[in-house]
TrEMBL record:
<dbReference type="GO" id="GO:0005524">
    <property type="term" value="F:ATP binding"/>
</dbReference>
<dbReference type="InterPro" id="IPR058031">
    <property type="entry name" value="AAA_lid_NorR"/>
</dbReference>
<dbReference type="GO" id="GO:0003677">
    <property type="term" value="F:DNA binding"/>
</dbReference>
<keyword id="KW-0804">Transcription</keyword>
<keyword id="KW-0547">Nucleotide-binding</keyword>
<dbReference type="InterPro" id="IPR002078">
    <property type="entry name" value="Sigma_54_int"/>
</dbReference>
<dbReference type="InterPro" id="IPR003593">
    <property type="entry name" value="AAA+_ATPase"/>
</dbReference>
<dbReference type="InterPro" id="IPR027417">
    <property type="entry name" value="P-loop_NTPase"/>
</dbReference>
<keyword id="KW-0805">Transcription regulation</keyword>
<dbReference type="Pfam" id="PF00158">
    <property type="entry name" value="Sigma54_activat"/>
</dbReference>
<dbReference type="InterPro" id="IPR025944">
    <property type="entry name" value="Sigma_54_int_dom_CS"/>
</dbReference>
<keyword id="KW-0067">ATP-binding</keyword>
<keyword id="KW-0238">DNA-binding</keyword>
<dbReference type="InterPro" id="IPR025662">
    <property type="entry name" value="Sigma_54_int_dom_ATP-bd_1"/>
</dbReference>
<dbReference type="GO" id="GO:0006355">
    <property type="term" value="P:regulation of DNA-templated transcription"/>
</dbReference>
<protein>
    <submittedName>
        <fullName>Sigma-54 interaction domain-containing protein</fullName>
    </submittedName>
</protein>
<feature type="domain" description="Sigma-54 factor interaction">
    <location>
        <begin position="5"/>
        <end position="234"/>
    </location>
</feature>
Amino acid sequence: MFELLLGRNPAFQALLRDAQTAAAANVTVLIAGETGTGKELLAQALHHHSARAAKPYATLNCAAVAEGLAESELFGHRRGAFTGADADGTGRLRAAHGGTLFLDEADSLPPALQAKLLRFLESGEIQPLGETTTRKVDVRLIAATNADLEAQVACGLFRADLYYRLNVLPLRIPPLRQRPDDVPLLAGHFMRLFAARYQRREAVFNVDAMIAMAEYAWPGNVRELRNVCERLAIFRAGEVVGVGDLPPEIPGYSRPYRPVAGFPVKARGRGAAGFGMGKYRVN
């Protein structure tokens, strides 16, 4: 699945090399990156290329679970353990036994649950709600965060001992604004993807549109780029997409764009640089 993580940017390529090494190691991984950078896709790739690939892969978004239910979701429960517990609950850790559990937005774990997760990481044992004995569980944990966990530790919002347990193999995904040379590659991939999905003719970007997109900061990162491309693939199918077709938050380019190694570039009359000969399709 690493082939689904697209990018030629040197920092991104270095991340992929580290991730491939981490995949083979049966230790905890902490993925850091802004929203929309692809943390879950990287976690899936780590599992897929690990010795646990044939075993279960479970996920839990810590920010999406009500605090009162988080312990049950993670560790499971016995019937009658709390109001509404009409049946036994397996919990994500037991569901992932032998495989991998991906904890997204791990910075959202409430303090009491942080202590119990630390106990699991130290002992490999869990105690479901309503049970008096512990159970052994064999799970590799991959955690992800878009927060500065070191700062949260310093502020007392996140346990230092849990942070060190999670941060055995740290992987940081660079934001898209730090890899503008990957925007043409990703945009071309998404336009082909959505043209095929919606059975429409593929739209292509002209030079000015591609330069504007490469200059844009992409606060939503790859997810935002994907959404823009999906919209254009639907509304501009078979057309050449210009700057005027882009969302209003993406202005026309403001400075000469630096040529990117591996992409065809020619000088333009008004001093900027262009990709290709007027419209841009990534092969």
